[in-house]
Specification:
single chain; 184 residues; alpha+beta; Mannose-Binding Protein A, Chain A; 2 domains; eight-stranded mixed sheet; 5 helices; 8 strands; globular; binds calcium ion
Amino acid sequence: MMENRLTEYKKSFEELPKCVSDLLETSSILEAFRVSEDCMTCRYGWKRFNGKCYFFSSDRLNWSQSRDDCVTKGGHLAIIDSTEEQTFLDNTANSKMEHASDNFWIGITDSETEDQWVWVDNTPLDNNKKFWVRGEPDDWKGRHGELKFGEDCARTGIYGCAVSCWGDSNCSAQRRRICEAKGV
Ligand SMILES: [Ca+2]
Ligand SMILES: [Ca+2]
Ligand SMILES: [Ca+2]
């Protein structure tokens, strides 16, 4: 445990020069404050919110590759358990999307049992903290039901969505991802 923490601290220092150059490029006190706050508690390139750190990828992977990559990065695919976290994640995703459906994988799937949604830490989806957009999840199998696999993995919303945004999608689709990790 201590060793993990030490490695994380060392990593933060390695990434410090990049933080400093970001800091020098800020144009307002407010922006400088935000950059230094992110840098103090999260690894470079991760964004801080409520004591957690989030990574919004620019590359695209299928859902299970995304899940594994977040673990490699020392975290997990985002587990969303409050309206605040959901709003922050979809708002930030919005600011990074290149087109209307350029959304991000999050850490929940019903691939084990259809319609039983479970987060990557094995917690079942809480009925009071579901953020599906209207009409989803629909386990869509094509217009004529011709697709073998339905939709068992969840993604963030289309452009402009803020709270009830999630959709289920084919797990083999290539999408961006949101990883979540503890702050250092
Ligand atoms: Ca979370
Ligand atoms: Ca499904
Ligand atoms: Ca769907």
